[in-house]
Design a protein that fits this description.
The structure is a homotrimer.
Chain A: E1 21-26, H1 31-46, E2 50-55, H2 77-85, H3 104-114, H4 120-129, E3 133-137, H5 138-144, E4 156-158, H6 160-169, E5 172-175
Parallel strand pairs in A: 1-2, 1-5, 2-3, 3-4
Helix pairs in contact in A: 1-4
Chain lengths: 176, 176, 176
């Protein structure tokens, strides 16, 4: 029987396929995991892949503007409390290990800078330049009371159905 | 050369393929990660996917019955200790962040209820209704001394070989 | 229209395809997650899969030699501090839950030994015997100041590009 096939996943004997797609769910709000997610995403985009990152739950904190934003639709007491307690933006995220009540993150940032690793701000800027699709999970936004105006520019807003449709087209799907 | 192919992963130009399959390893016993796992699983099942969730290590705690169960085969001292200290059922799980010694989970549940997000109990019930396969990892059960009679009804019991066979057939495989 | 295809991911009706490939990013340095990663990897290798594990960030600690190693290239103060504070080797890793300031890991090890589960040392030895490719992330090594001579034998050293090339060829890619 004759076998003729050409799929996005069969790259072994033909090198990297430029059209292959990657998705990453960014659930964790830890600086170290966030950096890993962006390093993988930027690497894939640099190799010509289409990449979509879905930010959900604590991961959304990386997309918050650093300043306090006056929101149009009022928040519930609990949502306002979550909003105050959760870190505003990537520079306030802690580490998943050796956080030492917040002391770990600046040390990790310094040692990364010393080694010419991109900062989280640069990683996010590069992701945007490379047209990585950054999607904020609308259900998580509703729960935590985060509004579009509190998040950085250039995001898309969608739910789990949109994620699944993209994951079906991708050949690498990670949950971080 | 003629190219003719039709695979589960090539869905870009033909929409969602109803027969595609998803697997999720649920390792974490955190309420927030558990909810994410069930939301993804239920979403995929609603779109017609076959979904298998493998509960291992702390993830097994979500499948425990809330009441204390008299087990047939006696547990070792350590297993009995693990059994007492680990949360019994999804309603006793904590959060991966902002847990505040257990205070975070009820607040998160309230804010989710306020926003009409399904509770973890409803998510599990929906998963069963949608015939998502819920598999308890037998090796983890042995280690932690959890017996079948301590877990909820409707589970399958299997090991890593079974997981791998299913993952091979799936186009999205997540570890949560 | 005639459909003829044979891909690594279409295994439903023909059993496990021996040539299929798996990749696992091992980011976490928790003993329990490390064991899960090796159990999955060893299971896949036993079924004939090609498996690559990429150790990055805290995951690198599992590959450290247990003894203090005199390094050739001097470390910065911060790198030396990270080196002293991070666990040296798999036997000093803690648990992701119920760690109890380090007390949890020995109890978990004992209960695993009681149930004839392989120790982390045995899992790593088996991985090597089965020719699982163990790759240390060079960027993480630079950041944390970990040198090749501080890590166990038999490793490869590579970056994110190498990971992505392998993931493109694999049908299961996990982030643990």
């Amino acid at each position: 029987m004759e076998e003729q096939t050409q799929t996005a996943t069969e790259t072994a004997d033909e090198g990297h396929v430029a059209t292959s797609k990657k998705t990453i769910i960014v659930f964790s709000g830890d600086l170290d995991k966030m950096m890993a997610a962006f390093i993988i995403a930027n690497g894939a985009a640099a190799m010509g892949d289409e990449v979509t990152m879905f930010f959900t739950f604590w991961g959304l904190n990386a997309l918050r503007r650093p300043e306090k934003v006056q929101v149009k639709k009022p928040k519930s007491t609990l949502q306002a409390m979550f909003g105050r307690m959760m870190p505003r933006g990537p520079n306030r995220l802690g580490l998943s290990k050796m956080n030492f009540a917040g002391m770990g993150a600046p040390l990790m940032k310094k040692v990364m800078r010393d080694n010419n690793v991109m900062s989280i701000d640069e990683l996010i800027a590069t992701a945007k330049e490379q047209e990585i699709k950054l999607v904020a999970c609308t259900m998580s936004m509703d729960v935590m009371g985060l509004r579009e105006e509190e998040l950085i520019d250039g995001l898309e807003f969608a739910g789990v159905g949109s994620y699944l449709a993209e994951a079906d087209e991708a050949n690498v799907n990670l949950f971080i």
